[in-house]
Write a structure and sequence with these properties.
Layout: H1 7-21, H2 29-39, H3 45-50, H4 53-67, E1 76-80, E2 94-101, H5 106-113, E3 119-130, E4 136-139, E5 150-158, H6 164-204, H7 211-225, E6 233-234, E7 237-239, E8 245-248, E9 254-255, E10 266-268, H8 274-278
Antiparallel strand pairs: 1-2, 2-5, 3-4, 3-5, 6-9, 7-8, 8-10
Length: about 280
């Protein structure tokens, strides 16, 4: 971890700050200074040396503009090609900047969405205190124990894309990814609870099948519940009386399966793999 007592590191941060503060309203300068020092906490010295302080300062100021006001649950994404005329800096890459509540899968899911493009990535998280309007009023120490939501800051440099429409489409896709991550994380306890209910049902009302198969099923569910499975989505289906059709139970979807618009309300059992049909 970088240490602000390191003279070389500190001198680079001070230089970046001098450039960045020129782009920040004076009333935000104190908050921004605390933000900047935490922003680069996990950035190695060689990376900082390899970039111009002007560009690092401008990128930092742009990310702060995204961070400064954010409402609860909101994910903010900015994808752009910085120019000297508009932003006061330029890059050989297209820039992706994101701020959102820090959650599992966030970074990997973002990277997967653009994994066909070569990019370098900076990722960090930060603790902020905001007012009711979503404005930053305090930057908390990195190791602070606080009841506030830790926020994730993602900075990506991707292959240069001059087509604005293509960048807008990428932003929409990333918005969808972040939305799905939130659904998965928020619904995880309920999905886990449903599997626990299935296990309990097997234990209390054993079905009329081979006892060894039932025991194996119970062991398997218990193993999955012991943090050996990532719950992404869950949905209930009813089996028709003739055992030929599965019918979706409306509004039973959780996680990525909350959205029912792209799913069939009925599905012939023959569409399932033979192993699933035997169950």
């Amino acid at each position: 971890m970088n240490n602000l007592t390191n003279r070389v590191y500190k001198s680079i941060i001070d230089k970046i700050l001098r450039f960045a503060l020129q782009k920040i309203p004076k009333e935000q300068s104190q908050l921004f200074t605390a933000f900047a020092k935490q922003y680069y906490t996990h950035t190695d010295l060689e990376t900082l040396k390899s970039r111009s302080a002007e560009n690092l300062g401008a990128a930092l100021a742009a990310h702060w503009g995204l961070v400064y006001r954010r409402l609860p649950g909101e994910a903010k994404i900015h994808i752009y090609n910085p120019s000297l005329e508009k932003e006061g800096w330029e890059s050989k890459y297209s820039i992706v900047q994101i701020v959102a509540e820090d959650k599992p899968f966030l970074v990997d899911s973002t990277r997967m969405e653009i994994n066909r493009q070569g990019f370098n990535i900076f990722f960090g998280n930060i603790k902020l205190r905001r007012d009711k309007q979503g404005k930053v009023i305090e930057v908390l120490p990195y190791d602070a124990i606080a009841d506030k939501q830790t926020e994730a800051l993602i900075y990506l440099e991707i292959d240069k894309e001059a087509n604005t429409e293509t960048l807008n489409k990428l932003a929409k896709k990333l918005e969808k990814v972040l939305e799905q991550v939130s659904l998965v994380v928020n619904d995880w306890p309920e999905m886990r609870s449903r599997m626990q209910s299935c296990l309990k049902e097997l234990e209390q009302n054993s079905p009329p099948y081979d006892p060894e198969d039932v025991a194996e099923s119970k062991d398997f569910l218990a193993w999955l519940l012991n943090d050996h499975f990532t719950f992404l989505g869950s949905r209930d289906y009813d089996l028709s009386k003739d055992h030929k059709t599965l019918r979706m139970v409306k509004k039973s979807g959780l996680g990525v399966l909350r959205d029912e618009t792209r799913s069939k309300e009925e599905k012939p059992l023959t569409e399932l793999p033979p192993e699933a049909r035997r169950l």
